[in-house]
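SAMPLE LOG
Freezer: B-3
Tube label: C17
Construct: single chain, 408 aa
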Amino acid sequence: MSESTIHGLGVKSISHWLDPSWRQAMQAPMVIILGVTLAIQLFLVAMFGADRSIGPAQTDSALLAFDTEAVTSIEIRANDADQTLILTRTDDGWSLPDLGGFPADASRIDQLVDSLSDMNRPLPVSTSAGSQKRFKVTDDSFERRLSLRGDEGELASLFIGDSPGFRRRFVRVVGEDAVYDLRLASFDLSANPDDWIDTNRLQLDSAKLERIASDDWVLVKNADGWRLEGSDQAPDAAAVDDLLASLSSLGYRGVLGSEEKPEYGLAATELRLDLSLTDGGSRSYRIGRIQDTEDYALKEASDPYYYRLAAFDIGTLQDLSRATLLGQSQSVTDAATNQSPVALPDEPPADQQGKASAAVNPATETSKDVVPEAKTTLEPLPAHNALSGQDQARDDQAGDDQERDGMR
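STRUCTURE (predicted):
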């Protein structure tokens, strides 16, 4: 049986079930051609498209393809604040060029780079260029633009837009139209340099401290423990422990730069501390109040940078004194220092003493036979002998009863 015969039988069998008005249309050459074309398209999709997705809908693939070791700088631009942060990798680690090369938090930066490298493409929330403005990921309107660069140029770049929920952001890869909903926190994309600084540069091991000195007192550590120079009294253990804890974990909120300014308040230093360590090292701190703020500025003699500290960072250091190290209340110490001696009355001359004595005791000038006149002035009863209201009422009642008995 020929192919034309089989085709004819198929069409006739289908046409047999159709309305007579459709039979002629189904046998038209155009309908047959369209049917064959559709069959070919379905065959091609089944053969070549089974393992592929179309365009940006592809999932389970890396969002950004780059080598983490090839990243030499990171740029985070905040469009709303018109601020750009640059993090640079050097032989000594990550640093902040805008802060004079101050060391950055390397562990946090490495974590960001690794998380970007591990991100996969989820199903996009949009694939049209017109929707980018709604998610705030256009070339001109965005929350953040993050770029990773290497020695040969840009490795990857992202637009970060609005937040659809907690720790989530809409993201678009530069050069693509698809918008994704990815897990990203705003703090991980901050363009503020102070959010990326290494905050451990002032910390030290308190066990290595052997001498702590200020302008008013000196603490020295010997075999028996800490002692306060110039005092036979042992320092208060709790006060010393608080001091050691504050020095060992001394933190800061930001870096002021590498040049001293008058508003840092270091010309009128509020506190000066000199530290000696068992390994031969030393530190010298100057701390002043920053003008028109509640913050403090700190400068370490061997460190080129000036640090900004909050009152919380200063802790017990701002109230440190010789008295507190001895466990004495500062208010009690100030009161004892400022207390004036009680003024005693001047002693009158001898002749006036005699006259005053005679005036007070005139009986000394009268005859011994004269009996002094009895005093008639009634003295008030002491307050503790005064009768209460109820006792007085009972006494009055008893007096009335006796008076009635006498009348009978």
